C-alpha cells in the first residue's frame, strides 16, 4: 500500500489539462493585446492634443502682448541684444522667427534675445522647454519640421509629413498631417 500512495503523490498534469491551460491563455491574450494597442494610440492622440493646446496658448499670449502673431515679423534685433545674450535671426514669415519669438525674450517689436531685461526684452519666453513634438510622428521641435504659411486661411495639410503647420496671419497651428486618427478624423483637425 505505501507504494500506491507514493505513486499518487507523483502524479502531474495530464496532456489534456496542459492543453486547456494553453488554450485559455491564448484566448485571454487575444482579448487583452488589442486593448493595449488602442490604449497606446489613444495616449498618443491625447498627448498631441495637449501639445497643441500648449503651443496655441503660447501663440495667443504672444499675440496679446505684441499685437501680431509670432513669426509675422522678423526676430532679428540688428545687434541691439544684450552683450551676454544671442540675438534672434529669423526673417519674417519663417519657422526660425516663430521659434525665436516663442523661445526667447522679446521686445514690443518682436526682436528677440536669449537674455531678458526690464526695459527692452521684457516679454517671454512663451515656451520654456522648447517647441513640443507632435506625439504621433515625433517631429516639430526644429525649424525644418514646421511649415509656415501666410495666407490667413484655414490650414489643410496635403501630406502626412508630421510636425506643425502654422499660419503667421491667423495664428492657426495644426499637426502637419492629412492622416487620420483612431476615430477617423484628420490629425490636422485636432
From TrEMBL:
Key word Transmembrane present: yes
Main location as per UniProt: membrane
Subcellular location: Membrane
Matching Pfam families: N_methyl
Gene3D superfamilies from the UniProt entry: Glycoprotein, Type 4 Pilin
Keywords, ordered alphabetically: Membrane, Methylation, Transmembrane, Transmembrane helix
Entry-linked InterPro entries: Bac_GSPG_pilin, N_methyl_site, Pilin-like
Membrane-topology annotation of the record: Single-pass membrane protein
Transmembrane domains' residue ranges: 12-33
SUPFAM superfamilies named among the record's database cross-references: Pili subunits
Protein name listed in UniProt: Prepilin-type N-terminal cleavage/methylation domain-containing protein
